[in-house]
Amino acid sequence: MDKIVTIAINDLRVFLKDRSNIIFLTLVPLVMTFIIGYVNGGGFGGASSQLRVDLLDNDNSELSAQFIASLKEANSSLMLCPADNDENDGCNLGDNAGLTREQAEQRVRDGDTLALIEIPAGFGVAVESFQPVSLSYVSNEDFTAPGFIRQAVDAAALRVNGAIVAARVGTDVAGQIEGITLDAGGQADFTQQVYDRAAGIWAANPVSVAYELTAQQESSTGEINLQSGLAQSVPGMGSMFVMFTVFGGMTLLVIERKQWTLQRLVSLPVSRAQLIAGKILSRFLLGILQFAVVIAMGFLMGVNFGKDPLAFILIVLTYTLSITALSFALGTQLQNEEQASGLSLLLSLALAPLGGAWWPLDIVPEFMRTIGHISPVAWAMDGFNQLAFFQGGLGDVLLPVGVLLAMSVVFFAIAVSRFKYE
Amino acid sequence: MTNLVEVRGLVKTFKRRDGTEVRAVRGINLDIAQGEVFSLLGPNGAGKTTTISMISGLLSPTQGDATIGGFSITKQPMQAKKLLGVVPQEIALYPTLTARQNLDFFGKMAGLGGKELAKSVDEVLDFIDLKDRQNDRIDTFSGGMKRRVNIGVGLLHKPQLVYMDEPTVGIDPQSRRRILDTVVQLRDEYRMTVLYTTHLMEEAQELSNRVGIIDHGEIIALGTVGDLIQQIGEEDRLIFSVGEQDIDNGLLQQFEAIAGITKVTYQSRELNVAPGLEDSAELVIEKKSTGTMMAVRSGQVMDGEIVVYAKRGRKALPELLRLADDAGVNIFSVEVREPDLEAVFLHLTGRALRD
Questions:
Q1: Residue A80 belongs to what domain range?
Q2: Cβ(A392)–Cβ(A310) under 8 Å?
Q3: How would residue B210 be classed by pLDDT, with cut points 50, 70 and 90?
Q4: Which CATH number fits domain B3-231: 3.40.50.300, 1.10.1160.10, 3.20.20.140, 3.30.56.10?
Q5: ipTM over 0.85
Q6: What is the residue extent of each domain of chain B?
Q7: Contact A203/A273 with Cβ under 8 angstroms?
Q8: Cβ–Cβ of B92/A264 closer than 8 Å?
Q9: What are the tens digits of pLDDT across the range A255-310?
């Protein structure tokens, strides 16, 4: 064991003697993580902190106003355009103050708005007379926002419908009670009172569902998207830079073979397993150090990685181990530095996006998700996402941890059996 | 004297990419006695390094085995390696680490630790005379200094057998002298056994108690320098420089007919110039045989040499000169070479060692 640790410490010392390695270990991942997090979170204007939705009210009745109010109550992040447009042109309407149906549909298609809701003319009259009426809802079904918008529309419609139903039932019941006689005006007043009462009770939200992106993020703050992006990008970029750093081990073996330090080690009383284990340990520790740097930055920026640090650490350890073992399984077969650095770059840039380090695998087709799981990154990201987005614990990450551990064992066995210094 | 190293039937076969096999070492048997400097001499590609790589555990033999201090390199490699110090031809050091950091690391790998390691590193730094530079990075050292650290690493654990693979390649004469002195010092003062590989006959001749000559993966001669020269009959070589003259075969036959002469060869060199320059103007060169400047064209015969092998060659010299004069051949110079390892190799293989 002493010799394994000595080899690892020596390799770390050699690695850290090179200043460019230190920059690559710290500065580059920090900058990349922030940029990718910002992009994923819409920090460059892809999405504002409010959910922009076009709403065309062709009725302009008291009921349509109540519907719109219910909509805002259901989701306070909605910016209903053009009515809610502000001095900064948050609706992105430009000089176009009004909005036609065609223009609004085009804006949805162009991604300028997340959805279009159209209230038809005669909405109020139809609702009051219990005639069927349909709201128009147009969306591109983006992977995050429309879910919230549709839920808000459903909730608002339910409130209006519920209040109307309550008023109608109340009026009918009152009409059947002996001793209560209402003229036409009185009946209308009574119906309105029941409606108002029902709407008031709805407004108090007797039962509500809170929709959250992460446990701690408040949907009304401007940080929601950036935080969400960083919760994805920090472990994602961490995983990718671990590959860059650890796959450097492939080059290391080639360089050591070329400068004959590897052969010199073999000529000393050091076993093949000790030699490989020492080299793997050094790269593993560098990988952990790399992850720690990125995660520390995430913590400083307030990213929540979940409630179970032990599970998080376990994923980091098994993932880094699997990548380290993979690098040595491949590195033992390489002939020169060009092959090693080429393969290192290729693998890092293929396995990272394939495994969901650059973007969530939720947005890719099912078959790509399946293929992506040949990458250790995908299993690690599954685990990280369980912790960060679903508040999972140790039990929820056992599968990814187990798979990563199995990969490590297989790769390590290949590395030892195919290791050559000739 | 007891044998420290015993090599029996060592074979190494490499597979080419096309599936064919190359037999780099073809069944070597060898004993190296305790406390001797044994040189393995042979041209590049003869199989020296492959043989030694197997003995030092870098390569596994295809067949055969070797023991160091009684420990088999295939069955007890760890015990065998503890007795062995390797000084590879390459500078096998971490260039960004200091001399002391390199020595510390390899010392630990050799099984040293604590005060023993520190003492050993200090002793080696004294031995290689680099104590004042111990905290400087290797990549700031000269070639000779790097070589000395390279040797020092192999001596850290005071091995019984030190293997040095062409340690004087690519260094200046002063550093080379220092290394050769070191080898003698290791044997005479530290009682170490040294296994030395070289393609330089002079080094082998100077340092070795015994020499093994290797060619095409086989030991073709083995013994002391005197033994080997004895084996070829102690022939002198008389080298007649004849310039660009055409030499008739009849003259060579006349030479061969003289008593005591065993073999006569004629060799000539042609001027070769780089591709593309063949048709350029005549090149003016210094003519070796006369020391005069001459103009020659590519392909033109330059220095012709008649090499005569003879026992007590000096005695045949007047007769040889007379025959040449009778044949109208001008002899520009005559060189008489006493028998040496170069001659042994030439005699055994028909090639010069440096070819």
A1: 51-203
A2: no
A3: very high
A4: 3.40.50.300
A5: no
A6: 3-231, 236-338
A7: no
A8: yes
A9: 888 888 988 998 899 888 888 889 889 989 999 998 898 888 888 877 777 788 89
